[in-house]
Amino acid sequence: MTKPKRGTWNIEKNDQPPSQSVDDALNIPAMMQNLRQGNDARNLVMQDALDRQEMFQPETPLRSLDDLVVSDVTLAQIRAMLAKVVNHQFLYEQWGLNTIDPHGGRTAINLYGPPGTGKSFCAEAIAHALAMPIIRVNYAEIESKFVGDTPKNIKAAFAKAKAVNALLFFDEADSILGKRLTNVTQSADHGVNVSRSVMLLELDNFQGVTIFATNLASNYDTAFVRRILGHIEMPLPDHDCRKRLWQYHIPDKMETEPMEMRHLEQLANATDGLSGGDILNCVVTAATTAVQRTGRERVVKMSDFLMAIEQVKKAKQDIGGATPHVTRSVMGIDDLPPDVRQTYNKTQ
């Protein structure tokens, strides 16, 4: 007797004819197609994550702590943060800090202070001291108009830093670490909260070094404040720091009138209330004025520096005073004044 073929009717056994073959019942081609589609979808997700990581490229830090012009108090705080990273194994294993600090693998530092006080410079110097590349992230790079993209970009930044063992530096961090919204009435509000929740999770799981910089630390959500090991103020430079900043920012190649200590004292006195970034602008402005002259007069004079200082001060007063610095975070309904919010709700 010939063995019946799979999926055929065996008359000798008086079987009932199957309604369809086994292959048809299992629908193998469709299953294989679904499997391929599933793999394709997973591959697309993985490729998308890798593509997003390409947004965040590590850089080799060039400036060191020796180049950083800050007060002794600020420098001591920075070195204390470095000591935690360098001595992590000793602190958490031999001294048992791992028993009380389960998330001790991460080191999060917050640099706060007025614009131009060297926060970005400081982050680079810390990366240099740790012999780590630095990945710089600002809000404009991770924020997206497409729903769900901002959290993906946040994850990609942390994934890239983990992959290359880089220090992760978030500039304008008040936009990223701002207070979560309590009265969520629109999709934009929900998106802000999701992004900040993702940031919390990524920060908890990241076993590396993260530095945040902001001009508006008061906008931080308390949940982020608790997760940051050290908050280091970067204030406007004092008299001694301003003298050192003038020395640092005037290049050796620049042709100037003979500069004595009394000249540096005069420049430091004249720039009281200005930041290191402002002093840099003063040097560039003075050099731009001097380069227009010819012959022996083509040198930067003390009068050029003093005139540049007045120009920078006037610009800060006229423009900076008229346009106060504001946060760059996405505005939600909770951020509106009560009277405006009431009017807005009536229109919805």
Structural description of this entry:
The chain folds into two domains: 65-233, Rossmann fold, CATH 3.40.50; 239-320, Helicase, Ruva Protein, domain 3 (Orthogonal Bundle), CATH 1.10.8.60. The chain has 348 residues and is α/β, with parallel strands linked by helices. The N and C termini lie far apart (80 Å). The chain has helices at 22-26, 28-53, 72-86, 88-94, 119-129, 139-142, 149-164, 187-205, 222-227, 239-249, 261-270, 276-290, 302-320, 338-347; strands at 107-112, 134-137, 167-170, 209-214, 230-233. It is built from 14 helices and five strands. It has a five-stranded parallel beta sheet with strand order 2-3-4-1-5, sandwiched between helices. The model is unreliable at 322-337 and 343-348 (pLDDT under 50). Helix 8 (187-205) links the parallel strand 3 and strand 4.
Separate helix tally: 14
Oligomeric state, counting identical vs distinct chains: single chain
**Rg over alpha carbons:** 30 Å
Based on CA inertia axes, which overall geometry fits?
Answer: elongated
Main pleated sheet: 5 strands, parallel
Strand order of the largest sheet: 2-3-4-1-5
- Strand segment count: 5
The class by helix and strand makeup works out as alpha/beta
CATH architecture of the largest domain: 3-Layer(aba) Sandwich
User: Remind me, CATH topology of the largest domain?
Assistant: Rossmann fold
CATH superfamily of the largest domain: P-loop containing nucleotide triphosphate hydrolases
Q: How far is the first residue's CA from the last residue's CA?
A: 80 Å
Low-confidence stretches: 322-337, 343-348
